[in-house]
Amino acid sequence: MTAPAAPVTRTITSLRVEGTQRIEPETALSYTKLRQGDAYTNETLDQAIKDLYASDLFADVQIDGASTGNIVIRVRENPIINRVIFEGNKRLKEDKIGKEVRLKPRQIFTRSAVRADVARIIELYRRQGRFAATVQPKMVSLDQNRVDVIFEVSEGPKSKVRQINIIGNKVFDAGKLRAQMATKEARFYRFLSSGTSYDQDRLAYDQQKLRQFYLTEGYADFRVTSAVAELTPDRKDFIITYVVEEGPRYKFGDVTVDSDIRDFDGKKLAAGLPIKKGDWYNAKMVEDTIDNLSETAGLFGYAFSEVQPEYQRDKDALTMSINFHIGQAQRTYVERVDISGNTQTQDKVIRREVRLAEGDAFNSFQVKRSQDRINSLGFFQDKFEIKQTPGSAPDRVLLEANVEERSTGELQLSAGFSSLERFIIQANITQNNFRGKGQTLSAGVNYSTYSKSVQLSFTEPYIFDKNIAMGVDVFRRDYNAFNFIGTNRNTTYSNVSTGFLVRAGVPLTEYWQLAGRYNFTYDEVGLDQNSFYTNGKCDPLKAGRYLCDAIGNRLTSAVGYSLIYDSLNSRLRPTAGQRFVFSQDFAGLGGDVKYIRSKLDFSKFVNLGGGFIGSFVGEGGYIKSLEKSRGEGIDGVRINDRFYLGEPQFRGFDIRGVGPRVQRRYFTTDSSGKQILITDRDQLVDDALGGTAYYLGRFELELPLGSGAREMGLRPSIYAQFGSLFNITRPLPTAVFPTTTDANGNTVVLPLPVKDTAGNPLYSYVNAAGLAVSTTCAAGIPTGNGGCNGIVPNSPQIASQPFDERFLGNSARPRVSVGIGVNWNSPFGPLRIDLAKALISQPGDDRKLITFNVGTQF
Questions:
Q1: What is the mean pLDDT of the chain?
Q2: Residues 32, 33, 39, 40: what is their CA dihedral angle, to the nearest 10 degrees?
Q3: Does 622 or 545 have the greater pLDDT score?
Q4: Residue 281 belongs to a domain with what CATH number?
Q5: Of the candidates 78, 96, 118, 400, which lies 20 to 30 Å from 259 by C-alpha distance?
Q6: For the POTRA domain, which residue ranges apply (predicted)?
Q7: C-alpha 363: how far from chain center
């Protein structure tokens, strides 16, 4: 065997670098091990070329003179990047891509860096579910060895889940199993759902969801043997396939409780558990039982008790026996309450809502109650929790309230113009955490041709750091009621209210509160004299008797109280608990108005699981006058003190669209000359009168949406409402019109004539001077002795065209509406849109299909 030839060794006689522009030759040599006078071989020169390429400074490297020892290293430098340009990117903005790529202006261009950046951009699009995205890099050469790097992006469509296949399921059909998953098959009606996009992390989550579902149905041996996501040949969609093994179904066997805490009786605890022997096995019930036992231990002061389920599976009998072991724990006490994260809100505002103080015995119920009260402040982000951590000793616990502040200011601004209202300006500003002290300060201004108001309000929830709330409101409201005849808006009565309200509240127990108030208001109720007055007096033929009876100035001095029960877990967006309020106000402590007004409000919220929130909200009221009768057909409660019902409380009906009202229909003639009533609602005079009694109830179900919709702040709900407004004195008819019979035997309603003081109808004729003169003569002209001379008919003076006046809506029968609405935390502020259909209404009610309102926060 011949030995391999030894490498030829030579000595570097001379060494130089050619082709460098920005880089010094010595710098290029520093990346190699070649030095003048050193020995070298062909392998040494090959390694030098590799080292120079590895520096990422050079696009080409060659070495000449290997046979002579006069080594010349010829290089071509990599260009410098002038700009990095992205084209075709619409779904991902340039700033987001720019943060991920490594190539930057004034850096050295290398093809390996370009390939790495292409992979990074494609990965960004894949995270957004765009697996068909492609990136084509291009280089544009410039002078001075510079280049522009262009990434041409073809984003492609968002990759959807076209199909979800499940293999191996026998007990439950594939549709029921797909309903348990967060990932959904792409369908046209799921355009708002983000669950139709492919997400690899969601694939693992769905496997866990399938396992949880089967475990709640008793299949304790269930497992997913494989989950495969395949990209379709067009690289647009995915097909996901799960292979499952269901296994047999188990029932609960013996269920026992074993406690190392001497205060607990295991047999009594086991008897109170919801799990019973013989029921189908349900892993969710096991988890809930563990939580309930832990909470029970917490109620007795054992903050860190551990409940461990011990399973005994009998595969022959298909039973699952469980022993809940409560480990030994010491009774714990609150060592310290730590509050962090509040930069604006003062510590005392949070601390006074905590129902446990340092040194108190730990109680999990009080911790939960403290958490709910802090959430109800509305100053912090949702899902706030008080964490429990071990203290300095085994019997000590630390309570940590790590809050994240939110915007507590609310700003509502709107401006507009209409042919009816002219300029409309509304501005309301509220700061619910004024100066970080939990105080509420608000101001509101409303201005239009028909409505003007200003209101200031201030509330101190803990006056002098005592658990007593006090507040004051100062207001002036100039309101004009109106109706429409066609497109013409007609002002009916104006009500200018000026006054103030002082209120205070004190807690009676943890859930009960007593609030009191004093209201002082001066009301000026009037009518437009140009439209509704005749000879300086209110004319019932123009205004209606009911409005003429309402005008006048009056002073209201009222004192009231409210008894409140509140166990809601949040006042802003409750999901559990209930609230009850009984209120009464007594007017007559001085002033001109005397009445007693009672009102009842009730609401209950239930978390139904799966993101569904059920609620019932009900209210009702009754007001009774304590004044003497003001005449026949005049209700004892004045029109501005009555209840009104409609939008926004009663969706499906317009503002003041429910309850007693007077409608005036005028007569006209048809094409044949027959007298008929105008029935077009736009041509009616419709005056809402309000009522002295009402009730209103609403059943509502809040619907869960996908994570994408939740991130947008969308919360849809469906609801059904019922209610009524009623119980006022029937007003007297405004007028009784004379009638006659035409040639066809039809009754004809005649205009109401103007009469003199003796009750004689008045007529008009034109005298010799061309002036219109009033007379009692139906024909001719009056003579000096009270007679009439002539046969020429005179024109009758008309006090009012004939109309039919109807009193409607004074019924306690329920009105019913159903609808769907959505709350949206839009960029413009909280927006509520409702689409409601009135199913049952009473004659005279004014329906409305769509309503919405909007505001903002700061």
A1: 84
A2: -40
A3: 622
A4: 3.10.20.310
A5: 400
A6: 10-78, 79-156, 159-247, 332-406
A7: 34
Which pLDDT band holds residue 856 (cuts at 50, 70, 90)? very low
For 26, what's the count of Cα atoms within 13 Å in the CB-facing half-sphere? 0
Q: CA–CA separation, 9 vs 220, rounded Å?
A: 75
Q: Distance from CA of residue 595 to its chain's centroid?
A: 38
Higher pLDDT, 627 or 745: 627
Query: How is residue 197 annotated by DSSP?
Result: B
Give the model's confidence band at 520: pLDDT under 50 very low, under 70 low, under 90 confident, else very high.
Answer: very high
Task: Looking at the structure, tell me whether residues 361 and 425 fall in a common domain.
Answer: no
Cα–Cα separations (whole angstroms), residue 441 to 93, 411, 463, 539: 41, 12, 15, 45
What pLDDT does residue 491 have? 58
Burial class of residue 618 (count of CB atoms within 10 Å of its CB; 0-12, 13-18, 19+): middle
If 0-12 CB within 10 Å is exposed, 13-18 middle and 19+ buried, where does residue 137 land?
Answer: middle
Tokens of 712: 């947008």
Give the CA radius of gyration of the chain. 42
Is residue 432 located within the same domain as residue 360? Answer: no
Residues 634 and 653 in one domain: no
**Backbone phi, psi, residue 33, to 5°:** -105, 10
pLDDT of residue 579: 95
End-of-domain residue from the set 386, 402, 418: 402
Residue where one domain finishes, among candidates 402, 418, 446: 402
Same domain, 122 and 233: no
Strands 772-775 and 409-418: unpaired
3-state secondary structure 371-421: HHHHHHHCCECCCCCEEEEECCCCCEEEEEEECCECCCEEEEEEEEEECCC
The C-alpha atoms of residue 655 and residue 646 are separated, in whole angstroms, by: 5
Alpha-carbon distance of 325 to 331, in angstroms, equals 17
* Under 8 Å between Cβ of 117 and 107: no
Q: How far is CA 763 from CA 285, 524, 694, 759, 798, in A?
A: 90, 38, 48, 13, 9
| CB atoms inside a 10 Å sphere around CB 832 | 16
Residue 706 has pLDDT above 80, yes or no: no
Q: Partners of 565 in the beta sheet? A: 512, 580
Closest Cα to residue 538, out of 525, 521, 551, 553?
551
To the nearest 10 degrees (0 to 180), the angle between helices 364-377 and 283-299 is: 100
Would you state the pLDDT for residue 161?
86
| Joined tokens for residue 40 | 């070298």
User: DSSP string spanning 523-537?
Assistant: EEEEE-HHHHEETTE
CA distance linking residue 440 with residue 433, whole number of Å: 6
Cα–Cα–Cα angle for 121, 124, 129, nearest 5°? 130
DSSP letter (8 states) at residue 48:
H
Strand ranges in 276-332 using DSSP code E only, listed in sequence order: 307-314, 319-326
Residue 298 gets which letter from DSSP?
H
463 and 432 both lie in a single domain: yes
Do the domain assignments include residue 741?
A: no
Task: Name the domain count of the chain.
Answer: 8
> Residue 584: what residue type?
Q
Distance CA 35, CA 31 (A): 11
Within this chain, do residues 458 and 552 fall inside the same structural domain, yes or no? yes
Instruction: Tell me the backbone φ, ψ of residue 103, rounded to 5 degrees.
Output: -70, 130
Q: What is the mean pLDDT of residues 523-540?
A: 80
Domain-located, residue 678 = yes
CA 55 and chain centroid, separation: 57
Q: What is the C-alpha to C-alpha distance for residues 415 and 421, in angstroms, rounded to an integer?
A: 11
Structure tokens at 510: 């943890």
Is residue 648 reached through a cis peptide bond, with omega within 30 degrees of 0 on the bond before it? yes
Query: What is the pLDDT, as a whole number, of residue 564?
Result: 95
pLDDT, residue 419, reads: 46
Q: What is the pLDDT of residue 458?
A: 93
The domain in which residue 211 lies consists of: 160-245
Residue 740 counted as domain residue: no
